[in-house]
Design brief:
The protein has 194 residues and is of the alpha/beta class. It has helices at residues 12-21, 48-57, 61-68, 78-83, 182-191, and strands spanning 2-6, 25-29, 40-43, 72-76, 99-102, 113-118, 131-136, 141-145, 150-154, 160-165, 168-171.
């Protein structure tokens, strides 16, 4: 299995490291031809407008849309924004997931926080599951979801921070910044059709 990580801007190196710790072949994706032969793709956190503009400049937007129509994509933080259909402003989006996202919903960098989340879907990769310690950095919020979107995690106040729609996954937080590899393993199971 080969998993690509969109490597235009942001914390792509941390995702590559997390995949390599799981003995998964990871490939940096910067050009359309880098999508060939991949089993799945991660769009990392970073600055969503910058990632979108670079993806457009490198001619990767339409190839990413085609890829996401039949293969698994996971967007973390800025990647979740790029997967969405609406962010209340003009910026390049893939529009693959039926979600509306609010950028920087929790405030500036100094308002970053961590939270323990109950995520039952992770019991697919580790029976019993338990809490997941999530890191939020200038995080977006998933404001609303379409009928085909499954909510995977919410904050205690009910705000949505992780969703799945078929082979598409979006998290408002950064699993690559923790030693807990369950979200990466969950995504790998999605790439395998589970």
């Amino acid at each position: 299995m080969v998993i690509g990580v969109l490597a235009l801007q942001g914390d792509f190196a941390e995702h590559i490291d997390a995949l390599e710790r799981l003995d998964v072949d990871a490939a940096a994706v910067r050009l359309p031809e880098h999508l060939d032969e991949l089993d799945g793709l991660i769009i990392p956190g970073g600055e969503s407008t910058t990632i979108g503009k670079l993806a457009a400049a490198y001619g990767v937007i339409e190839p990413l849309r085609r890829f996401g129509s039949h293969k698994a994509i996971w967007g973390t933080c800025a990647g979740a924004i790029l997967l969405s259909r609406d962010v209340h402003r003009q910026q390049p989006l893939l529009g693959l997931m039926d979600i509306k996202v609010e950028r920087n919903a929790f405030g500036r960098q100094v308002a970053s926080f961590e939270a323990d989340l109950e995520i039952p879907a992770l019991s697919q990769v580790e029976p019993g599951g338990g809490l997941y310690h999530a890191v939020f950095i200038r995080a977006p919020l998933i404001e609303s979801v379409g009928d085909d979107v499954q909510i995977l995690a919410e904050l205690p106040d009910g705000r949505i921070v992780a969703v799945r729609q078929g082979k598409l996954l979006a998290t408002a937080f950064h699993p690559e910044l923790t030693v807990d590899d369950r979200f990466h393993r969950y995504f790998l199971s999605m790439c395998n059709g589970i």
